[in-house]
Predict the structure.
Amino acid sequence: MSLIFSRQCEYALQAVIYLALNKNGSHVPIKDLTRKLKIPYHFLGKIMQDLTRKGLLVSEKGPRGGFALAMPACDITLFHIVDAIDGADFTRTCVMGFPECSGKKPCSVHGQWASLRDGIYAMLVSKNIEELSRTMQKPGYPGVLP
């Protein structure tokens, strides 16, 4: 599990990149996603529904149904997905959990965390799903050799 993001968020990132690699644009059935990504069916189903409600995915029921990106992959940043699943609280909260942590009343790692947090945020908003899918080398994803 990631240090910063929930397992739900990790799975959402993996699934959205998988959908971006589906070049024919057809909907990918949830069973295909769970099998390829090795994510529990019901857990991924809830995540995909959340992403659909947030407008990042579209879903279609029926034998040719499944999930697809709701917009071009170049318009979806990592931050869109993180915000949709985990929220953006990490951009403004104390890493040690203190409610009154600020530049005027800092915790012991306030300055270091602020620098790391700002770097993470900058990376999340600057990386889009299209560029990540182009550089994906993880076996099991469409177009990636085993």
User: Anything to note?
Assistant: Helices lie at 7-20, 30-37, 41-53, 78-85, 110-126, 129-134.
